[in-house]
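quick one, 94 residues, struct below
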Amino acid sequence: MKPLHQIIRKPLITEKSNLMKETDNVVAFEVALNSNKVEIKQAIEHAFDVKVQEVRTLIVAGKVKRSGRSFGRRSNVKKAYVTLAEGTIDFFGV
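---
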């Protein structure tokens, strides 16, 4: 198994993710592009001591950006929406 910090990059704190967390007990994370659902589930359960019911993933294509005459491209990002069976994850400790 890969180390946790290589699988879970950061939590996604947005209006959509906060609404999903409150209504459906779903938490969103940015994860490594080469990680799979089993690794994500194990990493979340180990890091936050919760029971994961389901993991849904998607890859967001990086945007093309322009600076003057040159073009560049942002990296692709993989998101994971994790449905929790038991427990909650509190990122701010409030």
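The longest strand covers residues 51-60.
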